Amino acid sequence: TAIELDALQLHVQPQISLQDYSVVGAEVLVRWQHPEYGFVPPIEFIPLAERTGVIHPLTYWVCRKTFELGKKLQDMQGDLMLSINISARNLQATNFTRNIVRIAAETGINLGNITMELTETAVMLDPVDAMRVMNELSDAGIRLSIDDFGTGYSSLAYLKQLPVHEIKIDRSFVKEMQSSNDDQVIVHTTLVMGHNLGLQVVAEGIEDAATLLQLKQLGCDMAQGYHIARPMPVEEFLTWLQQHRNPQTMSATLARKV
Ligand code: C2E
Ligand code: MG
Ligand code: MG
Fold first, then answer.
1. For residue 117, how many C-alpha atoms fall within 13 Å in the half-sphere facing its CB?
2. Distance CA 239, CA 218 (A)
3. 168 CA → ligand 3 middle, Å
């Protein structure tokens, strides 16, 4: 019903390159504004949607809206990589890739500008099917990312076989990096491993300048977190983007917030 009543909303959180602080992409996060209960966070309704099967129309809705945004950016000559969160259940749907390719054709998005994020747990739930669908998605030109990396169970040998282009270090490790030597070691090791496997590494949950600088020094490729920008509604994001296109403006913003 929420989908039909247009009660779902996309919020968008920018991702920057740690090489030159340019905006390189954004993650799309779904929000539900309930008429009675107010704002319902995704960690509450996504598991419910997964159990009831509503996750299928929900994901297609998120994809269509994201592709429309991507097309708009394409037309403005400002292509950005947009990341969408995909559930384990989506990989089990018949024709998932075909439906995505159809929505892409309908919206005119170039699928090379789309990343799909999956958690390790989602992939390991049904590794054979997951691998098959991930290969299909990758063949369609979509980049694949392992979200919340380090929190789930996954075999590195298996990860190596997947058509994955990126890993996202979970924010729980990033958050404590400054105070916990263990977490710093985990982040560093993940970066080295990811790079040795030819993957790009994104750090999420960066909340302060010191953490951002440390990740840059460790050679992390991309960064996402409240210190850069909070997730925001699409219109606000487009305005933010205009203001932060210039890496120098971005650097100034990052430095100011120390
Ligand atoms: P995620 O994919 O790991 O998304 C990152 C979450 O971290 C987002 O929470 C984001 O708002 C939050 N975050 C970003 N930067 C910071 C920071 O600096 N500090 C802190 N403390 N948090 C930060 P959100 O939007 O509540 O989403 C939670 C989870 O819900 C997501 O985790 C994702 O797993 C799921 N989700 C969100 N949208 C969708 C969707 O469209 N489909 C599916 N299947 N899952 C979604
Ligand atoms: Mg994510
Ligand atoms: Mg995550």
1. 20
2. 31
3. 7
| Residues lining ligand 1, Cβ inside 6 A | 13, 29-30, 41-43, 46, 62, 85, 87, 117, 147-148, 171, 204-207, 225-226, 231
Ligand 1: which residue has its CA nearest to atom 10?
Answer: 231
Ligand 1 atom with the smallest distance to the CA of 41 is: 26
pTM for the structure as a whole:
0.96
Sequential pLDDT tens for the chain (258 residues) = 888 888 899 999 999 999 999 999 999 999 998 888 888 999 999 999 999 999 999 999 999 999 999 999 999 988 999 999 999 999 999 899 999 999 999 999 999 999 999 998 888 888 889 999 999 999 999 999 999 998 887 777 777 889 999 999 999 999 999 999 999 999 999 999 999 999 999 999 999 999 999 999 999 999 999 999 999 999 999 999 999 987 788 888 888 755
